[in-house]
Design a protein that fits this description.
224 residues, alpha+beta, OB fold (Dihydrolipoamide Acetyltransferase, E2P), Rossmann fold, 5-stranded antiparallel β-sheet, two-stranded antiparallel ribbon, 9 strands, 41% helix, elongated
C-alpha cells in the first residue's frame, strides 16, 4: 500500500494499463492453449479410431520366441533430451505358424513383462506388431493345425504305391486340375480321400506330393 500511496495518478493509470495488457495476453495465451488441446483431443480420437480399425480381427496367430534386450534410444525434441530412466528397452522374436521367425525392435501394444516364451499372441499380418495375448485355452486348438513348409515331394519319390498314387490322382488331383471335364460329364468328384495304414507306409509323403503337384496348401493336423 505504501508503494501505491507514493505513486501519482498518472503512474497508477499506467500501471493499471500494464496489468490489463498482461491480462489480455494471458487470456490470449489461454485461448490458444485451449485450441491446441482441442486439436490434440481430435487427433487422439482419430488415432484411436485408426487403431481400432487396424486391430480388428482377423489377426495372425504367433508364438513368443525370445525376449531380448534392445538398444536404448534417447529422443530429442524441441531442444529437450528425454530419457527413460531405469527402464531397459525390450525386443521380441516372434515365430508364426507359417514357420517364419521375425525380430521386432518395437513389440507393440503388450508390455514385455507380460510376455513369456512360448505364449500365444495375436500379431499384425504385415508388421507383426503384437496386439494382444491369446488365452491358454486356444493353445491346443491352434497348435493342432499349422501350415507346414511348401512341399517339394514328387510321386517318383514314393516307391511301391503305384496303384494308390493312381487312385489319389483320379480322386483328388484331376478334379482340381481338370474340373471342366468332370462338369462336362456330370460326374461329382469325391470330397476327399482317407489314407490309412501302419506308420511309415508313405501316407504323409503321398499327401505332400499331392499338395506339391496341385500347388495346394499343406496343413499338418495332429488328430490326438
Amino acid at each position: 500500500m505504501s508503494e501505491i500511496n507514493a505513486m501519482t495518478n498518472e503512474e497508477i493509470i499506467a500501471k493499471t494499463r500494464e496489468f490489463e495488457a498482461d491480462i489480455r495476453k494471458s487470456k490470449t495465451g489461454m485461448t490458444r492453449m485451449q485450441n491446441d488441446v482441442k486439436g490434440l483431443d481430435l487427433r487422439i480420437k482419430e488415432n484411436k479410431e485408426k487403431l481400432a480399425m487396424s486391430t480388428q480381427l482377423p489377426h495372425m496367430v504367433a508364438n513368443v520366441g525370445e525376449i531380448l534386450e534392445g538398444e536404448d534410444d534417447d529422443d530429442e525434441k524441441d531442444g529437450f533430451k528425454q530419457e527413460t530412466a531405469n527402464k531397459t528397452k525390450k525386443a521380441l522374436v516372434v515365430k508364426t505358424t507359417g514357420r517364419h521367425t521375425i525380430y521386432l525392435p518395437v513389440i507393440g501394444m503388450v508390455e514385455p513383462e507380460e510376455l513369456k516364451p512360448g505364449e500365444l499372441i495375436a500379431v499384425n499380418k504385415e508388421s507383426f506388431i503384437v496386439y494382444e495375448k491369446l488365452p491358454a485355452e486356444y493353445d491346443s486348438r491352434v497348435k493342432a493345425m499349422e501350415i507346414d513348409e511348401r512341399p517339394t515331394e514328387e510321386y517318383s519319390d514314393i516307391g511301391g504305391l503305384d496303384k494308390q498314387i493312381q487312385e489319389l490322382i483320379e480322386a483328388i488331383v484331376l478334379p482340381m486340375t481338370h474340373k471342366e471335364r468332370f462338369d462336362a460329364i456330370g460326374i461329382r468328384p469325391p470330397k476327399g480321400l482317407l489314407l490309412h495304414g501302419p506308420p511309415g507306409t508313405g501316407k504323409t509323403m503321398m499327401a505332400r506330393a499331392c499338395a506339391a503337384q496341385t500347388k495346394a496348401t499343406f496343413l499338418k493336423l495332429a488328430g490326438p
